[in-house]
Amino acid sequence: MNLIELILIIALLFGLSDFFTARYPQLQRGIYHVALFVVTFLFTIKYYYGPDIAQYVPFYANTPTIRQALTHPDDIRYGFEPGFAVFCRMLNDWGVSFYWMTAIVSLFYFGAIALLFRHIERKQAFALAILVIMDYRCIFATYRQCLAVACFVLMVLCLRNKRYLMVTVLAVLTAAFHKSGIFVVSVVLFYYMVRGKWVKPYVYQILLLVLLLVFLLPIAGISSDFIAHLPLPDSYIYSLKHHLSLGRQVQSVFLVYAVTLVFTAHFTEYRHSRSQTIAAVALVGLVIVAVLYQYYYLLERLRSYFLPIIIVYVFRLVQTAEEEHWQVPYGTLLKQLCTLVIVLYLGHSILFLHRGTQQLKNNVYASCTVFDLIDHRPSDVQNAQMKLARKYWQEDFMKNEKNKVNR
Q1: What is this structure's pTM?
Q2: What pLDDT does residue 107 have?
Q3: 215 φψ region: left (φ > 0), alpha (ψ -120 to 50), beta (else)
């Protein structure tokens, strides 16, 4: 069992405990705080872990100056965004090691998630399990996007509280830390400005139909010429076209997306309160999921921003229905069915990860934490992990057909 599998199993066990402590809200909340601490701790102790260190470590060791990062963003080595380059440069100047940089990213991410999950009254540990298991790739390896997602979550919270100056600052940081941030922020802020007070249930039904069409038909007709004429830097255009050309496939997570849409459509039909900011952002995320379902890599990038928001929205919807005693036909049955589907998918994800790592020739997910430094020199551990990461990209990653560009 590697470190990722251990974290996911622990998160799932904490999440399942919510169903046995429903009558004890204080105990349930205490378990959530323990779960949040344990999961954050385990994510933070990773040391030169995962495949992406093959790009991140050389970049961190040779980070461009702040002036270079801001004036010539397209010339930055490895194509990393100016916000992340400035972040690394500042930490470098302060003498912060690569490990502590990764620890800061993890702590910042889970700090933002903790603030967001305050809006869930019950079953917070189960919500955390869903987030961690469905998005562990982002949390573990994509440091730039992890920062961007954390800033986006904080932006949504500030948007909810009408703190527009902070919204502007966090929107800029989201776009600066990762290329995908500029698309997410633009769409969300545009929809926030034009949204109505109420989203009818048929909107979710239409999204379910779109998801079914994308599932049944290989819809991949996004024009490269159109993308090429977007008013964006060349590095952003290249990244977008690259992600669209990779790994179109039918994903096993389809059923979770479908039941989420069915659930929200059914419950919102009996809802009488006004739409809120979290609901508006969640709707944008559900639209993106439905439209881009088959674009595996692009959806993985964009979904990370919206998954925490969607989780909070759905949990709030259920808990508000229970507290205000909405008369929702078959509401309990639908809730139990959706929960069962999600739990089965979470278990499937852990099993799929276990089988996938066993098939790797170069297992970059074999556990490596700061505690390995007790018996080994830091330089030896770092060199061994870097060598493993490089060999993974050469010998394991590119042999998978879904990782190859379709020409």
Answers
A1: 0.88
A2: 96
A3: alpha
Q: HEC string of the chain?
A: CCHHHHHHHHHHHHHHHHHHCCCCHHHHHHHHHHHHHHHHHHHHCECCCCCCHHHHHHHHHCCCCHHHHHHCHHHCHHHCCHHHHHHHHHHHHCCCCHHHHHHHHHHHHHHHHHHHHHHCCCCHHHHHHHHHHHCHHHHHHCHHHHHHHHHHHHHHHHHHCCCHHHHHHHHHHHHHHCHHHHHHHHHHHHHHHHCCCCCCHHHHHHHHHHHHHHHHCCCCCCCHHHHHCCCCCHHHHHHHHHHHCECECCCCCHHHHHHHHHHHHHHHCCCCCCCCHHHHHHHHHHHHHHHCCCEHHHHHHHHHHHHHHHHHHHHHHHHHHHHCCCCCCCHHHHHHHHHHHHHHHHHHHHHHHHHHHHCCCCCCCCCCEHHHHHCCCHHHHHHHHHHHHHHHHHHCHHHCHHHCECC
Q: What's the confidence (pLDDT) of residue 244?
A: 62
Predicted local distance difference test score (pLDDT) of residue 405: 45
Reported as a single tens digit per residue, the pLDDT across 108-122 is: 999 999 999 999 988
How far apart CA 151 and CA 177 sit, in angstroms, is: 9
* Residue range 335-348, pLDDT digits in tens: 899 999 999 999 99
Segments of the chain with pLDDT less than 70: 69-79, 196-198, 218-250, 271-275, 399-407
